[in-house]
Amino acid sequence: MTIAVIAIQGNVEEHIHALKEAMQKQKLDEKVVPVKHKGIIPYCDGIVLPGGESTTLCRLMKHEGIDIEIIDAAKQNKPILATCAGLISLAKSGGKQAQKTKQHLLGIMDIEVDRNTFGRQGDSFEVPIHISFLNTPYNAVFIRAPKIVRVGKNVEVIARFGEDIVGAKQQNIIGLAFHPELTDDLRIHQYYLQLVQENTG
Amino acid sequence: MDMEKLRHGTELIKRGFAKMQKGGVIMDVTNKEQARIAEEAGAVAVMALQAVPADIRKEGGVARMADPEIIKSIIDEVTIPVMAKTRIGHFVEAEILQAIGVDMVDESEVLTPADEMYHIDKTGFTIPFVCGARNLGEALRRINEGAAMIRTKGEAGTGDVKEAVRHTKQITGEIRALASKNKEELIKAAREMEAPIELVVETAKLQRLPVVNFAAGGIATPADAAMMMQLGVDGIFVGSGIFKSENPEKMAKSIVEAVNNYDKPEMLAEISKGIGNPMKGVDTATIPESEILQTRGW
Questions:
Q1: Domain count, chain A
Q2: Where is the active site (chain A) (predicted)?
Q3: Number of domains making up chain B
């Protein structure tokens, strides 16, 4: 199996590193490829969309023509892990800020997000939260993070910070408002790899 | 959820913010109209300034933090992060910038230094800092003071890329040279470069700086930006290069695309076509020593 990490901008190396470490732990010997241009995603079994600046990410994914390939991969039920800016790019609606910048969202996840919902960088925080598929709390790092303000009926809420939804799952797509790639805790990447394995079967 | 365990301004959060900028272009802007152009072009952040470095250089006098009203208007205009510059050592300017909601502070040699002995103690701030460096020792001293991101100093406001190239090659060369050193040689190297031994050992092991490292100072064309990326930096600051060019919209978009295609000459050829004249600039070799900015700070 091969996993594509969208490598346009942001936390690309951190996701690649986390995926490789998680693979080693699960004794999987698979490939992780950084993807900047079209033509590679159709041959991959899973896609990771990293954190970065969502305005930049969305604009360049469209410019490079990989937006359509990600939509196709989602239609084929290939597992996708999207964090922070990645989560925003998958949403159906991005609220006021996305409208203001005429952001080109992929609309793959039936959710609405609110960008920079917790404030500016000075308000960024880390906090242990509960995630539905993990037994013990996960230290979640929120950096100018979004939250999910509406979920469709096929979307399961998997993580909350207080009342706010910060993680959701729609079939094989996991969207997180925080950054699992910034910590050494590999459990989320391990869970994602399991999804890919089950899907490629 | 345990609210007592909620933490702001940790090293992880500060360095994490810098990591979000990787592979991106950060553009100098002096008003909200320019900030909008930068955001639409795909900049990952903007640097809010009173005047771009080329004009600061021309005007002379004491260059200070920008008017908070200008910075605030830029913050309200764009959704991407907004950075702003403080004078070297001017911790109160930095406190003001933090108070108005700036996302990252650049303790910058482009402004007139406020302290000739000490840089700001950046560990006491909630928001992260970026600082300039010309060599590895300087970069590690700044990281030791709490900088979450390093950029080359280059020679700001010139449109001449050679100083940014010099500083990048200097830093990467020094890091490469650490690879073959044993413990006692690393201790000697740390003493010689006046940097903490722990950071020298960490850098030797990682074979890169422990924080995100951008190129800045004199980058004026898509080819300049692509060259700096090929030299191994994580991203690009463009100062005067955008809004001192003939067509800022086109130049901004082209530099963003060049950073995403930095190793594809055919693409770079397309990207570089018909984008108007870059800023005129000045050869750094012809600038009198008293007007050189990169020697500010230590």
A1: 1
A2: 84, 179, 181
A3: 1
